[in-house]
Amino acid sequence: MRRTSFLVAVCVAVMSVMLFSGQVRRPYTSPQQLQQQQQAQPQQEQFLPPRPTTISSNPAPAMPSKTEIAPSTTEMPSLFWLPEDIQFPEMPPGASRTTTLFGDPRAEGLYVTRTLIPHGTKTIPHTHPDSRTVTVLSGLCYYGRGEVFDEGRVTPMPPGSFFSEPAGIPHYIWAKDGDVIVQTTAIGPSGTQIVPAKGNSVRP
After folding, report:
1. What is the model's pTM?
2. Which candidate, 109, 86, 114, places its Cα nearest to that of 98?
3. What is the rounded distance in angstroms from the CA atom of residue 92 to the CA atom of residue 84?
4. N or C end of the chain: smaller count of CB under 10 Å?
């Protein structure tokens, strides 16, 4: 019994010495063998955990598209003029007669007027403080520019013609062949200033 215990103790002592002295080592594995072992093992896919869905109680307002137009802060009156409703004021024979269709030429803002120039009328060269656009509605309008009325320097403008009158530029109109009606659109305030030039003896 004592002999057996002694042998067991000796064996344990020898194994301990060999282990700590480096005599017992793990089997050597080369880098090539290690790579082969890693490749032989099945690869596991990496999945990120799903993100929680967040619903805001106050979603951001949708941005308006480029085609949307913000409503105007200036109210525009709804006007409907039929041809028979448009009346020109009474004026002396040969004088131009102007009626206002929209706005007020004397105030700031958009305005539209319509003018009847009787047959044979020649307007005295004049200017306006505002730039205007003019459309010939009926008749043949003879239009000219300059400080002196010159029948040889007018341009015949038939119905449907459109032209501009820059602010401060002298101009005149001749209703040579019959009554002429023109429609003017501009931004006021407006007015008319007669050009005091020699030879301007025709009606304004």
Report:
1. 0.61
2. 114
3. 22
4. N
